[in-house]
TrEMBL record:
Residues with PTM N6-(pyridoxal phosphate)lysine: K265
Chain positions of site Participates in the substrate recognition with KAPA and in a stacking interaction with the adenine ring of SAM: L15
Substrates-to-products reaction catalysed: (8S)-8-amino-7-oxononanoate + S-adenosyl-L-methionine = S-adenosyl-4-methylsulfanyl-2-oxobutanoate + (7R,8S)-7,8-diammoniononanoate
Its job: Catalyzes the transfer of the alpha-amino group from S-adenosyl-L-methionine (SAM) to 7-keto-8-aminopelargonic acid (KAPA) to form 7,8-diaminopelargonic acid (DAPA). It is the only aminotransferase known to utilize SAM as an amino donor.
Database matches in HAMAP family: BioA (MF_00834)
Recorded family membership: Belongs to the class-III pyridoxal-phosphate-dependent aminotransferase family. BioA subfamily.
Name of the protein in its database record: Adenosylmethionine-8-amino-7-oxononanoate aminotransferase
Organism, as annotated: Microcosmobacter mediterraneus
Keywords: Aminotransferase, Biotin biosynthesis, Cytoplasm, Pyridoxal phosphate, S-adenosyl-L-methionine, Transferase
Pathway linked to the protein: Cofactor biosynthesis; biotin biosynthesis; 7,8-diaminononanoate from 8-amino-7-oxononanoate (SAM route): step 1/1
Length: 421
């Protein structure tokens, strides 16, 4: 039996309605930007396997560093024990994170990094003898699939069975030049009616909302307001972190820095699952006490896995190299030229770009996981490109190491789709 059929026996895939989507393509190996299926057909990974493998699949530099670590130390308990890969990673990350960040808390995926950030914000106030119970989040945000993360996410069509168990969350629209004044009024109202503990946001680009982009100045106004009200600000940079926006973090484009930052996805270059929740010293200080109960009693078994730390260190070194920085500039300018080429196409409703993230909305209306979307998805596959349209949005987030030829193939296939559908 081929892999694709053996898969169906026992595997339950994430985010999948198996009755409607029984088939999964079995990938046997990958190199650089290319995925190879069990029949040898190749696909350009135009979304970097959910924005993780930004330095290409099986990157030899990262692979070598992880292999070296494999010979030294695989995994140990990260409470009462520590190790150099985590210590070195903390030193290197602090150099690149916004200057106000001071402490790092390790976990193993984006959702847990968000859970930890939420717990930090709630317990920060609790430890300071203030009961604050409500969180603020953007409409259409996505922060993960665990309960806390689901609560603050705004895309709710799939959350029906769980809504009764959610945290208390109030939502505000993402900022535009036109709505920001009203949003500040709304925030003032919320503060007068609720005890607001924290505000969580995806800075500049909302990934799961189909790469919806918003105004940096407006976001800065919201953050300034939160600071004045002592509302803990949490930047979820799980998707935007590590160069996607053209700078190391999306928060680097915004004057007011977050109190807490969530990191995962590209952190390890897609080699291993790992996440980090960083925070400023003042947050940490609120937990630092002779009272054991004021500590943050949260932990995951695989916290700060040494192999994952070594992958993250190698990734960070690559990100800062001239080669990758020049590639990022090249991709940004190629996207701009592609935009020139297609933004007036009759099937294109609108286009947008932040850094290496490019998205276009089709003039055709589609359901998020509906039939036309599937036809489009299959069209891309047939043409050797792995793209996952979200509703009527097609977006590109290719590895930094993608060649210009591969990038042009993605553009050509998208253009062909525009002429076909
Ligand atoms: C993917 C994502 C998450 C969740 O990360 P997982 O590792 O899938 O749990 C959270 N926030 C943002 C912005 C994401 O893109």
């Amino acid at each position: 039996m081929i892999l694709k059929d053996r898969d169906k026996m026992h595997i339950w895939h994430p985010l999948t309605q198996h009755k409607l989507h029984p088939e999964n393509i079995a990938i046997t190996n990958a190199k650089g930007s290319l995925l190879y299926d069990e029949h040898g057909k190749s696909y350009i990974d135009a979304i970097s396997s959910w924005y993780t493998c930004m330095y290409g699949h099986c990157n030899p530099f990262i692979t070598k560093r992880v292999a070296e670590q494999l010979g030294k130390l695989h995994h140990i308990v990260f409470s009462s024990l520590t190790h150099e890969p985590a210590i070195k990673l903390s030193e290197e990350l602090i150099k690149v994170l916004p200057k106000n960040q001071s402490k790092l808390f390790f976990s193993d995926n984006g959702s847990t990094s968000v859970e930890i950030a939420i717990k930090m914000a709630l317990q920060y106030h609790f430890n300071n003898n203030e009961k604050r119970t409500t969180l603020i989040a953007f409409e259409d945000g996505f922060h993960g699939d665990t309960f806390g993360a689901m609560s603050v996410s705004g895309i709710s069509v799939y959350n029906g069975p769980f809504e009764d168990y959610f945290l208390e969350v109030k939502r505000i629209p993402t900022p535009t030049k036109d709505n920001i004044a009203n949003t500040i009024i709304l925030l003032k109202e919320l503060v007068s009616q609720h005890k607001i503990a924290g505000f969580i946001y995806e800075p500049l680009v909302q990934g799961a909302a189909a790469m919806k982009m918003h105004d940096a100045n407006g976001l800065n106004d919201i953050l300034k307001f939160c600071n004045k009200q002592h509302i803990i600000t949490i930047a979820d940079e799980v998707m935007t972190g590590f160069g996607k926006t053209g700078r190391c973090f999306a928060s680097d484009h915004i004057e007011t820095k977050p109190d807490i930052i969530c990191l995962s996805k590209a952190l390890t270059g897609g080699i291993m699952p790992m996440a980090i929740t960083s925070c400023k010293q003042e947050i940490y200080n609120a937990f630092y006490s002779d009272d054991i109960g004021k500590g943050l009693f949260h932990g995951h078994t695989y916290s700060a896995n040494p192999l994952a730390c070594s992958a993250a260190l190698a990734s960070l070194e690559l990100l800062q190299s001239d080669t990758i920085q020049n590639n990022i500039k090249r991709i940004i300018s190629s996207h701009q030229s592609f935009n020139e080429r297609i933004h007036d196409h009759p099937k294109v409703e609108s286009t947008r770009q932040t850094g290496i993230i490019f998205a276009l909305d089709l003039k055709i209306k589609m359901e998020r996981y509906g039939n036309l979307r599937d036809q489009l998805f299959n069209f891309f596959l047939k043409n050797g490109v792995f793209l996952r349209p979200l509703g009527n949005t097609i977006y590109i987030q290719a590895p930094y190491t993608i060649s210009e030829k591969e990038l042009q193939t993605i553009y050509d296939v998208i253009e062909k789709a525009l002429d076909t559908f």
